[in-house]
């Protein structure tokens, strides 16, 4: 028991730069308190003292703001940072060295008995406010961004963001980045997000624009080939197209192309 407690305290210093002393961590951090209480309630749950286990887990929730069902299986060195609003369901499984931030839910999507909560592998980071729902598997080393809603299994080492959760970074790219930045020294990505995380919508638009430019070049080549064969005259490329940009909604509203979205919030003129 004391070895596990020392491991838990050491994991806090590895992942929270605000930690100063072991006494402070042991007396003021709700995450280690909740994990310590869960070990007791899980021990009672496994020995069929389920009512007592639920009572003690509710008491722990009142003091820590973290709700962990006594039936959940939790590995070693789990760190729950801040912790308020964290909910871990009955059939959830959490591997070693995982990190959860405040507002995380490991919830179920079915009223049927049996496995209905997610399973997290080793070294998984779940950002603040993220919801991981259903009997899905989150692979080892995966990162889930803040406020993401994950309803499908995630491969090992991947980074997931958005609603619903989308994989924006594969294991190979994530490993390369983690070796290069500060996370390689501290062992995890704070809040499950990175400063250089790609925007999937912007990435899709950029790919479409690249495809359009490529097709434009191909059409230019076909036009010149037809002209060389005397089939039809060559038409010049319209240089004005190079200046065409996609305006933001605010710019379009200012130009009168679309109604100003803020106008509906203003009081009508008398």
Task: Provide a brief overview of the structure.
The chain is an alpha/beta fold and 270 residues long. The protein has helices at residues 2-15, 22-28, 30-46, 50-64, 171-180, 183-186, 200-228, 249-254, and strands spanning 67-68, 73-74, 79-80, 87-88, 93-94, 99-100, 105-107, 119-120, 125-126, 131-133, 137-138, 143-144, 149-150, 159-161, 166-169. The chain has eight helices and 15 strands.
Structural overview:
29% of the residues are buried. The chain folds into 2 domains: 193 residues, Hexapeptide repeat proteins (UDP N-Acetylglucosamine Acyltransferase, domain 1, 3 Solenoid); 65 residues, no CATH class. The protein has a 6-stranded mixed β-sheet with strand order 3-6-9-12-14-15. The chain has a 5-stranded parallel β-sheet with strand order 1-4-7-10-13. Helices cover 38% and strands 13% of the residues. The C terminus is likely disordered. It has 8 helices and 15 strands. Strand 14 and strand 15 form a beta hairpin. By secondary structure, the protein is α/β, with parallel strands linked by helices.
Counted by DSSP, the helix tally is 8
Low-confidence stretches: 179-188, 260-270
What is the strand content?
5-15%
Output mean pLDDT.
78
Number of domains: 2
Blueprint (SSEs and pairs):
Blueprint: H1 2-15, H2 22-28, H3 30-46, H4 50-64, E1 67-68, E2 73-74, E3 79-80, E4 87-88, E5 93-94, E6 99-100, E7 105-107, E8 119-120, E9 125-126, E10 131-133, E11 137-138, E12 143-144, E13 149-150, E14 159-161, E15 166-169, H5 171-180, H6 183-186, H7 200-228, H8 249-254
Parallel strand pairs: 1-4, 2-5, 3-6, 4-7, 5-8, 6-9, 7-10, 8-11, 9-12, 10-13, 12-14
Antiparallel strand pairs: 14-15
């Amino acid at each position: 028991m004391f070895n596990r407690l020392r491991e838990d305290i050491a994991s806090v210093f590895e992942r929270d730069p605000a930690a100063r002393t072991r006494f402070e961590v042991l007396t003021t951090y709700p995450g280690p308190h909740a994990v310590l209480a869960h070990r007791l309630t899980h021990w009672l749950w496994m020995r069929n003292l389920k009512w007592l286990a639920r009572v003690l887990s509710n008491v722990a929730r009142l003091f820590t703001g973290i709700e962990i069902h006594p039936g959940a299986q939790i590995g070693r060195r789990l760190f729950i940072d801040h912790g308020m609003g964290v909910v871990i369901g009955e059939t959830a499984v959490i591997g070693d060295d995982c990190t959860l931030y405040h507002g995380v839910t490991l919830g179920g999507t079915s009223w049927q008995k049996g496995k209905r909560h997610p399973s997290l592998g080793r070294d998984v980071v779940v950002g603040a406010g993220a919801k991981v729902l259903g009997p899905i598997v989150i692979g080892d080393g995966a990162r889930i961004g803040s406020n993401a809603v994950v309803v499908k299994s995630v491969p090992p080492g991947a980074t997931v963001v958005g609603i619903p959760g989308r994989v924006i970074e594969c294991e190979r790219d994530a490993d390369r980045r983690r070796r290069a930045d500060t996370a390689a020294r501290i062992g995890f990505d704070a809040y499950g997000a990175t400063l250089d995380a790609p925007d999937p919508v912007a990435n899709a638009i950029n790919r479409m624009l690249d495809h359009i430019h490529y097709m434009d070049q191909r059409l230019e080549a076909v036009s010149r080939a037809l002209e060389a064969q005397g089939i039809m005259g060559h038409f010049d490329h319209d240089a004005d197209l190079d200046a065409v940009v996609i305006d933001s909604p605010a710019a379009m509203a200012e130009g009168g192309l679309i109604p100003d979205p803020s106008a509906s919030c203003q009081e009508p003129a008398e």
